[in-house]
Structures are given as structure tokens and as C-alpha cells.
């Protein structure tokens, strides 16, 4: 509240002079029953606060004060704050109404009454509550598997908000404790995804924000399927790999890299690749290698295109040793986009 420059003290009622001399700065304030001590009034930020005060008779001299000075003396308004008015629903009421309450309104208020017998004061302490609001949260982050990750979520509010973290997985794991910082040591690929920060207090509904954590890891072949085919027919070999970033694929026949030519067609999408032979001949039977690579590593799987009735490995696939130089060459080629 902003108080006016006060006039000569001779113009003030005697009760105000006494109050200005006797009231200590920062006096704790409460409600308006002269027969009891200080009351607390709790109001949410932005709402209207009414500090009640009722006098004994119409001839009483009344004033409202706070730590900054006089707000009202009788019906004369001393405060320059347009949000502050008197609330008089009947002739003996002398309540103070503060609209759009904010945190700087919190504090002590005094209703001072000069009766025919003696001065009386009633004190009210206005408490302003503020809904929780997340003021700062980590940006989306990308890290390599095995790294340490720290997520930050800071919030304001009165009372102080309680902060909780939750990993938005099907299980919806909520982390123990109430912390602004969430530390993940040696993060794994399973710990990637969205993390939800929730700031809550009893004033209103919680404020919720999310952080996306992307975990990079090298490729792993998740499925490779050999195939049998008769001559003159169409046949495909398929290879799937899991990796972040998504892997690039190459195909080899023995030690020779395969291109889209001579009836062979390679189609690769995110996480999977296929090699299709449009018209199988005797020359197409044999061993093939699917290579998957990203900037973190390279892996491979061996597949076989075989004649019907020929001997196959378990589950229709045959694992073959791949020369180290071929893996190194594949990785170098994929990274340089050769």
C-alpha cells in the first residue's frame, strides 16, 4: 500500500496519534474481534480480501492502518492504492476490502477504534497464497547410453510447492523423494522417453511440464531371416535392427557390397532393411550379410538364400563369421555416406 504524505499531527484524531506512537513496525495482523487476539486471514493471489471490523456505535472514531501507515481515517482514504476500499454493509461495519490481492499485500493490518470509554484495536494478519508455477525446467536432451543425466525443475508458489518426477512409461514409475533435481546415473536405453515434473501445493491444481530424454545407443540386430526360394521366383531376405540414431544398412554377398542392380533391390526404412531377388537363379544361392551402423557402432547378421530341401541352420538361418575388415569398411563407408 502507498500512504499519502500525512498532514500536521494536530489534524489527526487523538487515537491515531496514539497508534502512530505505540504500534511497532511490522506488527502481526489478524481479524476483527476486539475480545480476542490476532486472527489470520488466508486469501489466494488475485482474489478479494475482506478484513472485518465492527464498531460499537456510530460515534466511534475508526481508522485502518498497516505497516506503511494510515489507509483510512474515518471515511477519508489515505492510501493511493485503487484496489483498497471500505466495506460497509451496515452502519456499524468498518471493514477493509482489498481487490486483486498480491504477495506484497501480505502482512499486518490494524483496525483502531476510539470509543467513548477507551481506544481499542483489532489486528488481522493477511496471508496470501500463490498457486504453483513451474518457472524453470530442463530443455529436451540427447545423451549417449551410459551417461549421467541431471534434470532440473524449479517452481514458485506459496506455500512452497512440492516437486515430484515421473517417467512416462506404461508403468508410470514415480521417483522417490521431492526434489528439484532428478539424477539418472548410467542411463540406459530403457530410460529414454518423457519425464514429467509436477509442482503441487494446496492452493490449486498442480502445474505440470515434461522433458524428453533421448538415449543414443549402437545398433543391435533384433531379427534376421534367411529364406528358401525356387529358381524363377521372387525371394527376400530381411534384417531388423534397433539403434538410436536409426541405423544405416548395407548388404554384402560374401565380401562384395550389393547395389540395386542385376535383379537385386535393397529397401531400407527406419530400423529395417530387405534384399529382394526379383528372379532367383542358381547364382543367387549362398551367404549374405546385413550390416547396420550408426555413429556409435556397427553390427551385422548373416543370412542364407537356399534351395528348397537343402540343409539349413536352426530357425532357418546360418550364422557365419564376418571378417573384421569388412565390418570396419562397412562402418567407414556408412559414416562417410559412400
From TrEMBL:
<dbReference type="InterPro" id="IPR013783">
    <property type="entry name" value="Ig-like_fold"/>
</dbReference>
<feature type="domain" description="Ig-like">
    <location>
        <begin position="24"/>
        <end position="122"/>
    </location>
</feature>
<keyword id="KW-0130">Cell adhesion</keyword>
<keyword id="KW-0472">Membrane</keyword>
<dbReference type="GO" id="GO:0005829">
    <property type="term" value="C:cytosol"/>
</dbReference>
<dbReference type="Pfam" id="PF07679">
    <property type="entry name" value="I-set"/>
</dbReference>
<keyword id="KW-1133">Transmembrane helix</keyword>
<dbReference type="InterPro" id="IPR050876">
    <property type="entry name" value="IgLON_domain"/>
</dbReference>
<dbReference type="InterPro" id="IPR003598">
    <property type="entry name" value="Ig_sub2"/>
</dbReference>
<dbReference type="InterPro" id="IPR013098">
    <property type="entry name" value="Ig_I-set"/>
</dbReference>
<feature type="domain" description="Ig-like">
    <location>
        <begin position="219"/>
        <end position="306"/>
    </location>
</feature>
<keyword id="KW-0732">Signal</keyword>
<keyword id="KW-1015">Disulfide bond</keyword>
<feature type="transmembrane region" description="Helical">
    <location>
        <begin position="316"/>
        <end position="335"/>
    </location>
</feature>
<keyword id="KW-0677">Repeat</keyword>
<dbReference type="GO" id="GO:0098552">
    <property type="term" value="C:side of membrane"/>
</dbReference>
<feature type="signal peptide">
    <location>
        <begin position="1"/>
        <end position="28"/>
    </location>
</feature>
<keyword id="KW-0325">Glycoprotein</keyword>
<dbReference type="GO" id="GO:0007155">
    <property type="term" value="P:cell adhesion"/>
</dbReference>
<keyword id="KW-1003">Cell membrane</keyword>
<feature type="domain" description="Ig-like">
    <location>
        <begin position="132"/>
        <end position="214"/>
    </location>
</feature>
<dbReference type="Pfam" id="PF13927">
    <property type="entry name" value="Ig_3"/>
</dbReference>
<keyword id="KW-0812">Transmembrane</keyword>
<comment type="similarity">
    <text>Belongs to the immunoglobulin superfamily. IgLON family.</text>
</comment>
<dbReference type="GO" id="GO:0005886">
    <property type="term" value="C:plasma membrane"/>
</dbReference>
<dbReference type="InterPro" id="IPR003599">
    <property type="entry name" value="Ig_sub"/>
</dbReference>
<keyword id="KW-0336">GPI-anchor</keyword>
<keyword id="KW-0449">Lipoprotein</keyword>
<protein>
    <submittedName>
        <fullName>Limbic system-associated membrane protein</fullName>
    </submittedName>
</protein>
<keyword id="KW-0393">Immunoglobulin domain</keyword>
<dbReference type="InterPro" id="IPR036179">
    <property type="entry name" value="Ig-like_dom_sf"/>
</dbReference>
<dbReference type="InterPro" id="IPR007110">
    <property type="entry name" value="Ig-like_dom"/>
</dbReference>
